């Protein structure tokens, strides 16, 4: 997202305003998703919710370079943001609610390392792929996320998360 959005904005739409709008749509969607995650109690198991929202986010990411009209792309960005916001808040709340308090610092440091510590490597790889073919970068990232959600969804441990 951090590499692909600027590339799409520059080469497809030719404007920094397009990039700003894409970021705003994603950010607004993420904020709405976070608020929804905090306000609503899920009616189904959280494991199903995690997999469902991450899978929807994954399809949205894979679709980004294939959507030509900018208003549809902006709508996709809002949907991706909502899904990401709900999934991220719910997953973090579940982790923090189920980890022994004495281990919380260690567990959260591993989670943050995976989320932020590995980001420079991810950005470098995304930049290398986007430089050659931005559509392949988005579709590849989306497909990898979809495959990950399928594997997670097939796991009884994920499906039984309260």
The arrangement of helices and strands along the chain is HHHHHHHH
Largest sheet: none
Spatial gap, N to C terminus: 30 Å
How many independent structural domains? 1
CATH class: Mainly Alpha
Rough shape? globular
What would you say this structure looks like, in words?
- The protein is mainly alpha-helical.
- The chain has one domain: Growth Hormone, Chain: A, CATH 1.20.1250.
- The chain has 8 helices and no strands.
- It has helices at 4-13, 16-39, 46-63, 70-98, 104-117, 119-132, 134-154, 156-159.
- Helix 1 crosses helix 2 (16-39) and helix 3 (46-63) packs antiparallel against helix 7 (134-154).
- It is globular and about 50 Å long.
- The two termini are 30 Å apart.
List keywords for this structure.
Growth Hormone, Chain: A, single chain, 8 helices, mainly alpha, 162 residues
In short:
The chain has 162 residues and is an all-alpha fold.
Write the layout of secondary structure elements.
Elements: H1 4-13, H2 16-39, H3 46-63, H4 70-98, H5 104-117, H6 119-132, H7 134-154, H8 156-159
């Amino acid at each position: 997202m951090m590499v692909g959005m600027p590339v799409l904005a520059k080469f497809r739409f030719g404007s920094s305003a397009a990039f700003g709008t894409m970021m705003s749509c994603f950010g607004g969607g993420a904020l709405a998703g976070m608020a929804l995650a905090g306000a609503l109690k899920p009616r189904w198991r959280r494991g199903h919710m995690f997999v469902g929202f991450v899978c929807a986010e994954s399809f949205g990411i894979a679709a980004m370079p294939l959507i030509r009209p900018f208003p549809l792309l902006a709508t996709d960005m809002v949907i991706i943001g909502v899904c990401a916001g709900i999934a991220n808040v719910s997953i973090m709340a579940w982790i923090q609610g189920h980890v022994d308090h004495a281990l919380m610092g260690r567990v959260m440091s591993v989670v943050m390392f995976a989320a932020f510590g590995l980001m420079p490597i991810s950005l470098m790889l995304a930049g290398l792929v986007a430089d050659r073919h931005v559509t392949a970068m988005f579709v590849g990232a989306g497909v990898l996320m979809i495959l990950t959600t399928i594997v997670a969804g097939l796991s009884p441990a994920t499906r039984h998360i309260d």
